[in-house]
Every structure is written in structure tokens, then in C-alpha cells.
Amino acid sequence: MDIAFVIEKFVLVAIIFGISLLIAMYSTYAERKVAAFLQDRLGPDRAGPFGILQPLADGVKMFMKEEIIPTNASKWLFMVGPGLAMLTACIGTAVIPWGSAITVGDRVIPLQVTDINVGILYIFGVVSLGVYGVMIGGWASNNKYSLLSAIRAASQNISYEIAMGLSIIALLLVTNSMSLGEIVANQHGWRWNVLYQPLGFLLFMVCSFAETNRAPFDLPECETELIGGYHTEYSSMKLGFYLFAEYINMFVSAAVMASLYFGGYNYPGMDWVLAQTGTVIAPLIGTAVFFLKIFAFIFFFMWVRWTIPRFRYDQLMHLGWKVLIPLAIANIIITSIVIAIIEKF
């Protein structure tokens, strides 16, 4: 085995993990600032200049708070739940292409942990596993509100995964690949998939809100009905893990949407930039562009949260089963017909 290859992968994994945690940490700050802006307030402004140290203060608070485990809780499952939620949130980053390959001499260093040929199926598998952390935590708490939240999360996840999967089928008809690396590479320049699959993108984005439990689909955390939802009984860093997992899921969802529909690291004029800057700087510029797209989606997640009121649960189910799934099936049929006509002529 090539030792340099192993070192490259370990370094890349460490960098991606660190960036994921950093973005999750400062997403809490950005969320409060966006909410303050929309509500004509200042938001956090005490800890450091403009409040930029507030996430660090929150992290220290989480570590320093007393650890409480309810007497009647299933102790081991109670501890496993937050860890599983955090684990499934982080492993989704493994198949995302963060940039084109960097070439240094004879060595080509891909900015992707692994490019498996079923990358989209991997993402769906990780998304499916993510709900288990919520379900286990809600059930193990031995709290009726937490249990109801876990049941809601499972039902919501199953309902919206179907529409999300159907929206991806239409995209696969266009791209002829399930590898995220190939899908992104085929969107060179302006050939972004959103131009060919606008309805598919809209369906995927709506389902992403539901899969990440973000408003207006945050029924598992509905504080007016369920106190705090599945993490009602949690405190200290276990609660922090659940909160961090939500923001990492939002980051990964934004990265997947940017990869599948908005070209990932591709941007207009990248061939000229490559000719001017070389095979090291140009891929890093592409990575920076990719992160700008991700931040735009994260801002949109936050904007929607503080703009649109939460659905009722019956409205949530109605939208998933009676609106999104029929639209996704119609999108597959229309895409198939268009492709068949194009291939014939």
C-alpha cells in the first residue's frame, strides 16, 4: 500500500472533520445573527468583537454543565443516541468532491475522500441511518414527549425520503452516473444540472429541509407541543452533540445540493483560471467557490427558518405523500419522454 496515499487520506479526513465542526459551531452564531437581522435586533455582541467568540462560550458552557441521566432512562442507549447522531452526520462528507484534483509533480491528489460508483446510494444510506440517533435518544429517555418526537422523526424521514429518492432518479436519467465525482465533473463551467432539472432540484431541496428537521419541518422539535422534542431529557455535551449534528446535517445537505445541481466546484471561466494559476491554486479556488455555494444554501436554510411558520403534522404528511411524491413521479415521466425524443432525433 502507498504510504503517501494513506497519509493524504488521513490529512483530508482530518481537515474535512475540522471544517465540519467549525462550520457547525459558527452556524449557531450565524443563525442568531440572521434571526436578529430579520427581527431588527443586534444578536450576540458581548463575547468578543461583534460576538464572534459566542460559539466558544457556548461550547465551554456545554462542557461545564452538569451531566444528568434520568433515573428511569435506558442508560446505555441514552448515551449512544447523541453519538450515533453525530457519527452519521459526519460520515456523509466522505463521498463529496470538495474540489478538482491537485497535481504536484507526478502526484495527483483528489480532494475527495473516496469516489465510489454508488455515491448517491451512500448518501441515502447515511441519511436513513441518521434518524436512528433521534429514535434511540427519544425512546431511551423514557419521556412521553421524547418518544412522540422520535415517532414523528421516523415517520417524517420515511415519508420525505421517498420523494427525495424519486427526484434523484430523474437526475440519474440526465447524468447516467451515481458517482458524485462524475456528476460534478460533468457540470463543467455553466452546465449545471439545475438548468435541466429545476423541478427535481426544488423537490430535493424541500425534502432536505424535512430530512434535516429544519423549519418549517421541525415537527420532532416542536417546543409548543413537545417541550424540546427528542432531546428534552438531555444536558451538557450530549445535548451539544444533538445540536451540532443538526448543523452538520445542514452543512452536508447544502454540500450535496451544490454538488448535484449547482456544479460543485465548477464555475464559469475555470479553464482560464487553471491556465493562469496552475494545478495547485486553481483547484483551491474551485474549492472556495464550492464553499461559497454551500454558505449560500446555509443562509437560505436560516432565512426560511425565521420567515415561514411551522407546518401542522397533518399538513406535513399531506405535502409529502400527496404533493411531492406525485410531482416527483411526473418529473421522472417528463424527463424520460424528453430524453427519448432527444435521442431519437
From TrEMBL:
Q: Where in the cell is it found?
A: Cell membrane; Membrane
The family classification in the record reads: Belongs to the complex I subunit 1 family.
GO function terms (MF aspect): oxidoreductase activity
Ordered alphabetically, the record's keywords are:
Cell membrane, Membrane, NAD, Oxidoreductase, Quinone, Translocase, Transmembrane, Transmembrane helix, Ubiquinone
The EC number on file is 7.1.1.-
Looking at the keywords, is Disulfide bond present?
Answer: no
Q: Which reaction does it catalyse?
A: a quinone + NADH + 5 H(+)(in) = a quinol + NAD(+) + 4 H(+)(out)
Query: What's this chain's function?
Result: NDH-1 shuttles electrons from NADH, via FMN and iron-sulfur (Fe-S) centers, to quinones in the respiratory chain. The immediate electron acceptor for the enzyme in this species is believed to be ubiquinone. Couples the redox reaction to proton translocation (for every two electrons transferred, four hydrogen ions are translocated across the cytoplasmic membrane), and thus conserves the redox energy in a proton gradient. This subunit may bind ubiquinone.
Q: How does it assemble?
A: NDH-1 is composed of 14 different subunits. Subunits NuoA, H, J, K, L, M, N constitute the membrane sector of the complex.
**Lipid bilayer topology:** Multi-pass membrane protein
Main localisation, per the record? membrane
Transmembrane helix in keyword set: yes
At the top of the EC hierarchy, this enzyme's class is: translocase
UniProt-recorded name of the protein:
NADH-quinone oxidoreductase subunit H
